[in-house]
Amino acid sequence: MKAPIIQPANPARPYGVGLAYRYSFHDEAVKYEDEIDIMEISTEDYIIRERRINSDPNEALLRDALDRWSCVAHGISLSIGSVQDLNEHYMSGSKRFLEEYGIDVFSEHLAFHEIDGKDLTMFLCMPFEEIAVQWVKQNYYAVRRQLGRPFALENVTYFFPAPHSSLDEADFLRRVTEETDCTLLLDITNVFNNANNHNYDPYEFLDRLPLERVSQMHLAGGFQQPDGKWEDSHSHPVMDGVWPLYEEVLKRSPAEIVIVERDSRFNPFEEVLDDVRKARELFYQYRPSVPEGDGPIYLDETPIEVPKTTPLAPEFAGLRSYQRALMGRITDSGFRERYQQNPPEALKEFGLTEEKWVNSLCDIDLNILGRLQDSWDYIDNENQEIAGEYEQNEWAAWADILQSEGKSV
Ligand SMILES: [Fe+2]
Ligand SMILES: [Fe+2]
Questions:
Q1: Domain residue spans in the chain?
Q2: Is the peptide bond before 268 cis (omega within 30 degrees of 0)?
Q3: Model confidence at 287: pLDDT above 80
Q4: How far is the CA of 108 from the centre of ligand 1 (A)?
Q5: Residue 20: pLDDT band with limits 50, 70, 90
Q6: Less Cβ around it within 10 Å: N or C end of the chain?
């Protein structure tokens, strides 16, 4: 099916280069207000209660940011590729956030990372298969319906492509844009990382993308592991090899929003700002003025009817079982042991019997899988400690209340 005809109607048009907004550098950013066109707000910072309370309890910083800069929103928890029902809490929180603060432009990641409440907090790429395109299409339109607007999907840095996939990443991205009216948030650093980490030419990759659908770009800096693989850490200046790719996409796409992402090492702030300055200089070299028309961000609110299906539909059974079994291999030590003893028997627990998916799962690089398992064990341990601490604090607060009421504890 071809994508529906897009009717652009964008009243407030974010245009230029900015930063992924973080509370910690708010005051610094204000000093350089005129050098930053856009702030990209993390929706999670305002829909996850603990995060908001800890950092911006009255939303005073957010309101100030909205006053100063053109703002767009970026989510991280959707897991659009997971073959399961959408997280309604996340969906309603995102919708409320966008509407309450009048933010039109939204983006999320083309990936899966959460199954049955277990969140890896690391993106896994979708298997590059037509059935995965079809699942993403269903979920994209379900989210679009709820948010009342189209949104952009971002390519992620991935640890491994699912072995024996029938498409590759460029085909997969192109198919998703053919099947939906999404635009692409092309993370240029992720293109650079994946090309280097999985040995392909990033320029040939760009040649095969529908660059006319790129509405936004990300730039970030990471570091190289001892084995030469690039880590997408958002902790360093944008790498030298990323800039020519950025320039190439500036030349060949209509993208009007560029965001520099930095998640740590904010000091000196000038170092972060240097990336914005460089990106901005190139941006205005190719985009000296806002082009006529409505730009590449489509805010058409016309609902598009796409037949709904469910995660339990038989056509998605293979993909669904594959995702669950993969998550089991990463997060469940008991399952890892059973899998080591007898892979086919263990996979039957997840109903994974189809040869194609079994082979794909069994042939994942064991070193990479080991790294993911170690990361998960670490995260899981930390989460348990945080949960324990939270519980202790809750008990302490409860004890204070009882004591203040003169009751014994
Ligand atoms: Fe992102
Ligand atoms: Fe990104």
A1: 16-286, 314-364
A2: yes
A3: yes
A4: 7
A5: very high
A6: N
Q: Name residues with Cβ closer than 5 Å to ligand 1, which is an ion.
A: 154
What are φ and ψ of residue 254, in 5° steps? -90, 10
Instruction: Please tell me the number of the ligand nearest to residue 108's CA.
Output: 1
Distance between CA atoms of residues 195 and 128, nearest Å: 16
Q: Which ligand is in closest contact with the Cα of 217? A: 2
Query: Could you give the CA distance from residue 74 to residue 388 in angstroms, rounded to a whole number?
Result: 30
Ligand nearest to the CA of 258: 2
Point out the ligand nearest to the CA of residue 107. Answer: 1
Ligand 1 centroid distance, CA of 154 (Å) = 6
Q: How far is the CA of 217 from the centre of ligand 2 (A)?
A: 8
Superfamily of domain 16-286: Divalent-metal-dependent TIM barrel enzymes (3.20.20.150)
Q: Residue 390's pLDDT is what?
A: 59
| Cβ partners under 8 Å of residue 226, min gap 6 | none
DSSP reduced 3-state for 310: coil
Instruction: Say what the pTM is.
Output: 0.90
